[in-house]
Amino acid sequence: MNDAPDLDPDDVAAPPRPRRKGIYALPNAITLCALFASFYAIVMAMNGRFETACIAIFAAAVLDSLDGRVARMTNTQSAFGEQMDSLADMVSFGAAPALIVYQWALQDMGKLGWIPAFVYIAGAALRLARFNVNIGVVDKRFFQGLPSPAAAALVMGLIWVVDDAGIKGVTKVDWAAWSAFGVTLYAGLSMVTNAPFYSFKVFSSRRTVPFVVVVAIALGIAFVALDPPRVLFALFCIYGLSGYGVYAYRKMKGKPVSVIATSTDDPDEIGLHR
């Protein structure tokens, strides 16, 4: 005789729905699209079509911001996807911008032109490696150093603005070539600093925001559409300087300037600061 109580089928928890393996292709496909965009940018730069190359790198940045979100939304995160995303980022925001800016303005400087291009690509590699090893202990509100997509946008934005102004043969224009030298060197070095750059991760898809924020985003999109090269370059110039402003402000206030284990009162940081 079975003394176990009869269980109502509705009271029994349904077994977890198995994840379809095919969906793992979705975030990786987005990563591959970003990788293709950077490859396309390099090819366009080799053919002298620098405006198209710049747009392709910006497209890669948009795609890079989507693959991780798609993976989290579809619950398809994997170690393979993380490694693939990191390698694609190295090409899209490390190798591609360095090669494009060298082709655009630095090649006639001889070996001197190698310096900013190599510093940039080395900075991108170091930045990505540091990000991967510190991902569990960094204050989520900030990036440690200038993020590589923003660094790429800074360099590509300069190229786009100058090319859109109709200035060709930049290797023969001293001010443009030296501007490329300085901006590329600045972007490369900024990636390996400890300056805290705001991450905008507080605007999570799971959090509500005031209606005015949505209106502001719409106005921002319209503002960018007025003159994409100049507006985007100006915005990334401001962002590229903002980390040093935050660093100086924290120094003056006597607050910790490191983004490693600095926030102990934010609920999102529980367990990260020991």
Question: Can you characterise this structure?
Answer:
The chain is mainly α. It has a single domain (23-202, 212-257), classed as Up-down Bundle (Four Helix Bundle (Hemerythrin (Met), subunit A)). It is 62% helix and 2% strand. It has a two-stranded antiparallel sheet. Helix 1 (25-46) packs antiparallel against helix 2 (50-73), helix 2 (50-73) packs antiparallel against helix 5 and helix 7 packs across helix 8 (228-253). Residues 267-274 have low confidence and may be disordered.
- Determine and state the CATH class: Mainly Alpha
Return Rg in Å. 22 Å
- Chain-averaged pLDDT: 84
CATH superfamily (homologous) name:
CDP-alcohol phosphotransferase transmembrane (TM) domain
Low-confidence stretches: 267-274
Q: CA-to-CA gap between the ends?
A: 55 Å
Q: Under the CATH scheme, which architecture would be assigned?
A: Up-down Bundle
Q: How many E-type strands?
A: 2
Q: How many domains make up the 3D coordinates?
A: 1
Proportion of helical residues? 55-70%
Order of helices and strands: HHHHEHHEHH
Biggest sheet: strand arrangement? 1-2
Strand content: under 5%
Main beta-sheet annotation: 2 strands, antiparallel
SS summary, helix count: 8
CATH topology: Four Helix Bundle (Hemerythrin (Met), subunit A)
- Give the CA-based shape: globular
Class of secondary structure makeup:
mainly alpha
